[in-house]
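Record pair follows.
FIRST:
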Amino acid sequence: MDPARKFAAQGPSGAFPQQRSIFVIDDTPEALDLYRTVFEMEGYEVHTASNGNDALAMLSQIAPPSLILSDIRMGEMSGPEFLVVLERDFPDIFAQVPVVFLTGLSVVPETKAASVLHKPVDINELLESVDRLIKASANRRTTGTKDSGEDPGNLL
């Protein structure tokens, strides 16, 4: 990993990742506005991108988020394609930051996402799932344990 990406992966303060930030990726401006509003009301710092390519570019410029929330179907780069590139180009972020997919699809492609939520998503369910995944991820980092093998779907 080049020094600029390593700095971005650790963030300006060296912390990895920030405790209360969410990165939302969706190609629908209304969805981005809704998620930004909801998460900001809950005290999260929110970063947004309208496609996977923009998200990858932004990840090299910001401190790692606590969680990445991405639509699956987007025009320029799909959520699963984003996840593959994230794992390849940002392995530290991929290992430490849970990625949650949102989708209206009835059949979801198999991916390494931490969880999948189906649209339309209940806002309370979304907030509870995000909170649980962030806490579980922080706990694994604090204790130095690997994934328990528990099905991430059980965290919903």
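SECOND:
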Amino acid sequence: RMGLMNFPDKKQDGANAVGFNRLGPQIVPADNTEPGAWSMGFSNVTDGHEAFPCFEIPIKFDWRAHSCFNYRFYSDDCHNATWNFGDAQSGSTNTATGTDVTHTFSGVGIYPVTMVSNGQTSRDTIIITTPQVHIAGTPVLPCPQPFANYSLNTFQAHLKYQWTVTNGTPASALNTGDLNIQWLPGTTGTIKVVAIDAVYGCADSSVITVQIPDTLIATWPGGNDTMQTALQGIALTGGLPPGGVYSGEGVTNNIFYPDSIEGNSATLTYTYTDAYGCVATADRVFVVTGIDNLTLQKSLRIYPQPVNNRLTIECADCDFSNAETYLYDVTGKALITPVQKSHNHIQLQTSNLATGTYVLKLKLADEFAFIQFEKVY
């Protein structure tokens, strides 16, 4: 009764192989007790695994993974078997009866599987793991467009990797361990990487969140301004973010000198550079009135100089009822102080000002005057 047997290979469902049974021909006593009287028998060939010869002592069971957590277990068909899969969390499905059974494990872990058949115990251990994914990234470079590189701490060629990106470009990528991402400024971005075992389908994922800086913007509040050529150098301030520099015609070391420009206006620029080398600018236009146009300036009488509590401005031919006044310190910071106006004189309350130099800008109709004074105690 020896010969070739056609049986499905136990590691690949549905694929047949022709050859000798891996156990070879088995001869056992006919009654299992009396030597000299022999017989040989085989269990039926069943779909999915080999035909096993029937023994008094059952053959050790075999298994195959159908997916990451789903496994098939089988033994010879000669004896019924009871199973314990060592998976207490699976509840009532932790045990089974039969010679060809399946079990879905509850998660990653080490499971001692036990089969009892014809009074004999057979054991094996199932170890289920998932791919580990860890994402590392470089700091986001905010200019000219927010950008960063991200990579996997460990890249395994037998795994499939799926990248998904929100608020960044590219939005997705496959099977790479390294990705450059251009972010959308001023948003929150996310990166998700899923690693999949191509053989058993086991998968793991990792997600990181990235706060993306906004595009660098510089401002210089205050709009356009008008001043006279005779005015001393004015320290330029007010640019945001603070810490930048001022430049333009008539500007030296962040101080503007109206009498050093050609023409009657100058466009000045505030430039801010951040720690990454990103640069942003903001402009203001300064209009300068020449000496020949200072009719209002020449008609004013200003006293006392220096001043302590109150500065008085008089003009015999003026009507100050609708005049506008603007007060600045030497840094260009706008200040507020009480002002009293009448037909031909203005009184500026100075008692609340600190000791120093100030400039009062006086606007009357289409004329301007700039009054520089010293405050003392």
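COMMENT: The helical segments are 295-298.
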